[in-house]
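Handout, page 2. Input:
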Amino acid sequence: MTGSFTLAYVPGVTPGKWARVWQDRLPETELTLVQVPAAEAAGRVRAGEADAALLRLPGDREDLHAIPLYTETTVVVFPKDHEFAAADELSLVDLAEHVLWQPLDDTLEWDVVPGQAPVERPESTADAVEIVAAGVGLLVVPQSLARLHHRKDLKHVPLTDAPQSRVALSFPIRDENPELVEHMIGIVRGRTVNSTRGPAPEPAGKRQQAPRQPAKQQRRGAASQPKQKQQAKRAKPRRGR
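Output:
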């Protein structure tokens, strides 16, 4: 199969393993990976700038399908010398007295943002990480983003009762390239190369089997065999004189 396929992905998502599978299965179809800001991923797909995108839910899903792939652990980021430094995990109650930064590209959906409200919202998660590293406030993000912006002077631990984000493969409802999208769906879902949604085709060169006899004839044939054996047992050799 020839042609090309463009897959957009948001920061923190690592599509490398899926790209390698694509190359093995579709070596003649070029796969282009494009990292895009989280706020732009859905729009890129709708505009036709990408055939599909790996993005986070909840989010913009207008005119798009979204197939959830996995759910990310939510973590809280703080300086290594913070009072939380010895904690293995935290809850929202623990954050009540602390300033919690909520960047404009926040991927979590909050009913009520915990902690103390900051004076402003940072432009990006990267900006919020810099502020936390300076010793001001905390940041709550999916674990993959905490790892992406890892610093030696920061630490992160799970936040047990926080909202979570899901990574999904998203593509247009009116898909213009359904066959390649179907290949990508199979790859990210872990289907084998021979897996399909429909019945598997008969392997080429499979030997044709002889037509089966009707069940009635099979029963007659089976029933006749014991009688022949019984007759063979009753037959006695003639004695010579």
